[in-house]
Amino acid sequence: MTAETGANAGGGVQSVERVFDILEMMASARGPIGVTELADLAALPLPTIHRLVRTLVNRGYVRQVPSRRYALGPKLVRLGDSATQLIGSWSGPHLSSLVQQSGETANMAVLDGNMAVYVAQVPSPHSMRMFTEVGRRVFLHCTGVGKALLLQLSNEAVRSLVTRTGMPSYTENSLTDPETLIADLEVSRRRGYALDEGEQEIGVRCFAVPVPNAPTPTAVSISGPATRVTVESADQIGPLLQRVAQELATEFEKDAAL
């Protein structure tokens, strides 16, 4: 085997790992990127990057734009749609359990670059309820799921992330200072859940917890009108979220063992 296609020390296939590294770098770039930039980011020889990118172009997972730079290709959309459907199918029963016991909307989100992206939701049966479109990307500092994702990072990583994204204010309750956010996260760690106290939308409260040992940082939440989802309801909702997060963690472990 050549160095490019051989197995690495962790048991993976090096060329496959490099392909996914390239796709993730393109996604993080938020726009077309050149092969020289990719080579610098990946710390790989330019000819290696050329070969890998050309293969991805031929397969439709990467496209070359008129500037001769490269961007993610349309074929990834189908994979993303399929992945979202699968996530929804196996997480649905767990989120439905949250809805049945709390009466409010349940969500699951993952960390995608510098943002949270909702990957599954089961709505509340109430006519007045919270709804977030699956696939929606949101900032981390002002959402329950976002804060639960940040709980899985070090304080330095949190500071670095919010420096890159900024901390836009959506309501008078939004946190806009990194140190205030980190203090809020420390409180969340002690009490066992993250809280969005009308920080993205006035009148909405959201409780969220991380899913332990997920392959990518993952969080689940319950959200609803603050008149129903009260601070006192944390005594009921917190344990519910922790139980379902552990159930989801078990599902991830089963998948990893296959």
UniProtKB/TrEMBL annotation:
Superkingdom of this protein's organism: Bacteria
Keyword field: DNA-binding, Plasmid, Transcription, Transcription regulation
Keyword Transcription (UniProt): yes
SUPFAM superfamilies, per database record: GAF domain-like, Winged helix' DNA-binding domain
Name of the protein: IclR family transcriptional regulator
Lineage, uppermost ranks: Bacteria, Bacillati, Actinomycetota, Actinomycetes, Mycobacteriales
Source species: Rhodococcus pseudokoreensis
Coiled-coil portions: none
One Pfam family it belongs to: HTH_IclR
Domain IclR-ED: residue ranges: 75-254
Record bears the keyword DNA-binding: yes
Domain HTH iclR-type, residue spans: 13-74
